[in-house]
Design a protein that fits this description.
Blueprint lengths: L2 H30 L8 H39 L5 H16 L3 E7 L6 E8 L14 H10 L3 E3 L12 H6 L3 E9 L2 E10 L8 H41 L9 E6 L4 E4 L1 H7 L3 H4 L4 H4 L1 H17 L3 E5 L2 E2 L3 E2 L2 E9 L5 E10 L1 H14 L4 H4 L13 E13 L1 H5 L4 H21 L3 E6 L2 E6 L9 H20 L9 E17 L4 E6 L1 H12 L5 E3 L1 H7 L3 E6 L13 E7 L5
Parallel strand pairs: 16-18
Antiparallel strand pairs: 1-2, 1-5, 3-4, 4-5, 6-7, 6-12, 8-11, 9-10, 11-12, 13-15, 13-16, 14-15, 16-17, 18-20, 19-20
Length: 577
């Protein structure tokens, strides 16, 4: 129920109660004065109060249903955010338990090899894994749902003659049961089961419809993860086969040199010539030690191992080559064998890693600041101006409310787990809108928009969208957290000119923003209550056509004499959707 509606109903109830009390108190006085009230006035007042209470319960029920549907939409996004099968299965189960209020649940899937149902994951309402031998359930229910594709619901299985004869239900004293099929492309791929051994009548038609809708999305997420898992295993098998075959025929683009048992070079392809900056014809017939003395000395022990053990050996070297300078090479030494598996020579496969290493070094500088989607397109940092660049930026400062008090009551390990979940939600929201994480300050997160690493003309709008995403995702997180762990973010956003670049010592540098927007965003955050997004007047001027906001007077100014107005972000304008 909305707070305004609840307050109105409460006020009407109080007025009716006061009227009834007053009429009862004045009844005799009015009679003495010749005023006779109709006999049914008090009775009608009682009926009115009963109807009002019934209306309040009905409105509350509709509000709870809306909250459940909102949670379904938000949690479906979470389930579809991963391709790791085990992670997806756990997320699906945890979400199903949270949506229905079940005590525990599990998922079985049809095996891709045998077609039989296989137990995959079991979880309880504390998001803990349950071992299979501790989860005794009705195989009859599973088989029925898997075969028919129709859900099964039991309000009190112990009293239901259809279920109470089953040994697993009797032994576990299971009361409420809800079991729905996982259907992908009109085919039942598995079953999602949830129950409660203590509460009867927990599941009704609403819970059934909600879980069935969620199961439809979950089946798609699970099949995507299974497809990804199969592709990854196939790739791993192909890679292993390739490594076993060696690199002679598998790496045509690589440099290839062959030698005999005396280490005399027999052949050298053009790729090897380009990589090593030699003419292939000039080195054929010469010894490996003569042509590449530095390499031969370093790899002598590996070469001996290839002949002795008949197994490939790999080494990475960084020689200085005439005409090329310092390079990075990966060299694989493979035995050259005849049909009888007798080693009579050596295959030297050379891969030039110089460009790859240079690009990796470039990306390492910015990888910690940007999401992978932004990093992929960066080829060089020469023009990024990391030494210092003054530009207009939007800075988001988000801090968890009540964390200090909350942290006093949890052991360190559990505290770190909880705060990590909140920091992850905030970081994901910033990166979703192409912002970069500036720093973590305890339980606070600072995000930057429109730096030289992520130039954006609409940086203020992106910052506010990130803040709204953060607020939505925190509410979704609350659906799977116990009440005592539900905290809220206070968020502040400012837009203005700042100096951005690497600061720190020669051994360790940090990319950050220095200037008033950082300090003012922090001050705005201090003015925000849990769940509020407070922006500056400068930010408001850039986003006013996209978001609905309300002007507020700040209660903390910290010496900013001109700080008289700030804005609370309410929602996206319909015209901007």
């Amino acid at each position: 129920m909305q707070p305004a509606a609840h307050a109105t109903l409460t006020q009407i109830q109080e007025q009716l109660a006061a009227l009834e009390q007053g009429l009862r108190a004045q009844h005799d006085i009015l009679r003495q004065r010749g005023i006779v009230l109709p006999s049914d006035v008090l009775e009608k007042l009682a009926y009115a109060q009963t109807d009002l209470a019934r209306l309040e319960r009905r409105i509350a029920g509709h509000g709870a249903e809306i909250d459940r549907l909102r949670a379904l939409a938000q949690t479906t996004q979470i389930v579809n955010s991963s391709l790791e099968l085990d992670a997806v299965l756990e997320q699906v189960m945890d979400t199903a338990i949270a949506l229905t209020g079940a005590e525990r649940g599990f998922i079985v899937l049809h095996s891709s090899r045998t077609g039989e149902l296989e137990f995959r994951v079991a979880r309880d309402n504390q998001q803990r894994t349950i071992e299979p031998d501790r989860f005794n359930v009705s195989r009859t229910i599973l088989a029925e749902v898997a075969h028919s594709g129709q859900p099964v619901i039991a309000s009190d299985a112990l009293l239901d003659p259809e279920f109470n004869a089953q040994a697993s239900i009797a032994s576990q004293a299971t009361r409420s049961i809800l079991c729905v099929p996982l259907i992908f492309r009109e085919r039942v791929t598995g079953v999602l089961y949830a129950d409660n051994r203590r509460v009867a009548g927990l599941f009704g038609e609403k819970e059934l419809n909600l879980l069935a809708a969620f199961a439809h999305q979950a089946a798609i997420a699970i099949e995507n993860a299974r497809l990804y898992d199969r592709a990854r295993r196939a790739l791993r098998e192909i890679t292993e086969i390739k490594d076993m075959m060696g690199n002679v025929f598998a790496s045509v683009a690589s440099g290839v040199i062959t030698t005999n048992s005396a280490h005399t070079i027999l052949t050298c392809n053009q790729a090897a010539g380009r990589i090593l900056n030699v003419t292939p014809g000039d080195i054929v017939g010469r010894s490996l030690q003569e042509v590449f003395p530095g390499f031969f000395e370093r790899a002598h022990a590996l070469i001996d191992a290839v002949f002795r053990e008949h197994t490939p050996q790999t080494i990475e070297v960084e020689p200085v080559l005439p005409g090329r300078g310092a390079v990075n090479l990966r060299i694989k030494l493979t035995p050259l064998q005849d049909v009888n598996n007798v080693t009579y020579g050596l295959v030297v496969v050379v891969d030039d890693l110089t460009a790859i290493k240079q690009r990796e070094a470039t990306l390492n500088v910015v990888r910690t600041y940007l999401s992978p989607r932004l990093v992929r397109h960066i080829q060089s940092i020469d023009d990024l101006g990391l030494s210092g660049d003054e530009r207009e930026v939007s800075i988001i400062f988000a801090d968890v409310r009540g964390f200090t008090t909350f942290s006093e009551h949890l052991p360190p390990e559990e505290l770190m787990t909880v705060i990590t979940r909140y920091l992850t939600v905030a970081s994901d929201a910033v990166e979703l809108h192409d912002g970069i994480i500036d720093k973590y300050m305890g339980d606070a997160v600072v995000g930057l928009f429109n730096t030289q690493l992520n130039p954006q003309s609409d940086h203020a709008v992106r910052a506010v969208r990130a803040a709204l995403s953060m607020a939505y995702d925190v509410r979704a997180l609350h659906e799977v957290l116990p009440p005592e762990q539900r905290l809220g973010y206070g968020i502040g956003i400012d837009t203005g000119s700042a100096m951005l670049g690497n600061v720190g010592s020669p051994s360790r540098k940090e990319f950050t923003a220095i200037g008033q927007p950082f300090n003012f965003a922090k001050l705005l955050q201090e003015n925000a209550q849990a769940g509020q997004i407070i922006i500056s007047e400068r930010t408001f001027e850039q986003i006013r056509d996209v978001f609905e906001c309300e002007a507020l007077r700040p209660h903390k100014t910290k010496g900013y004499a001109g700080f008289r107005v700030m804005y609370r972000v309410l929602r996206v304008k319909k015209s901007a959707l």
